[in-house]
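Course assignment 3, question 2. Fill in each field.
Student: A.L.
Task: Predict the tertiary structure for the chain below.
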Amino acid sequence: MKRAAFLLLVLASAACAPAASPPPIVPLRIGVTPETRPLVEAWLQSVPAAVTIVDYSSHRQLLRAVEAGGVAAGLSCISDPASQFVQIPLARTALAIIGHPALGLAALTRSQLQALVTGAVIEWNSFGAGTNTVKIAYREEGSAARSAFEQLLLDGKAPTPAARVLSSARAMIEYVGATPGAVGYAWLSELPAGSTPLAIDGRQPGESDYSALTTIVAIAGTEPQGQLREWLAALQRSGPAALPRGLSALP
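Answer field:
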């Protein structure tokens, strides 16, 4: 009799036991740099996902983290066809050339820009832009902006040793805005609303044939699967309305 009661108790307990819960979703670790963090934050507003944002100070550090497996993927403003990593295109952006307002310039040719940056031209009056000495603002080594500038606009030429090296887009924008004769660069998405960058060879950063147009990519060590693949695919499908300011849809 006691044995029967024990069995009934066991059966009743099993019947009342709650159903097994699905395993919790582990947030994706997505690496960003200062230029891509705002983009990921904006994307997560329109295309939500379980994501933990991991900050890296430079593009070079981001690539090392992807290689070491510290993040599921990294978001970068530059793509490299020769890279060993898997690269998933998400949108397009451009590197914008900015100058001090008193220069009164609306455009430069690519060759003029190279002459300024390399130090071949050191006075603005050579281009009819006042009498100030040219002051070149340059980003730090390892930043995506510097890499893109050198790859897309300098054609392998070295910048002048007199260039002022700055460690952030904000510092770059503030320096150029406050320093007569200064010229520099920043991602289009980083410029304050209403800014007017210089045209290069008659093309503005928003145009499809602009010289310094580049692709924003997700960089991963292997082909994305599961949750990461689904989120990246959703970003690609989201369309122009979901893109932060300064970005355009893939062609």
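Instructor remarks: The radius of gyration is 25 Å. Residues 2-16 form the longest helix (15 residues).
Grade: pending
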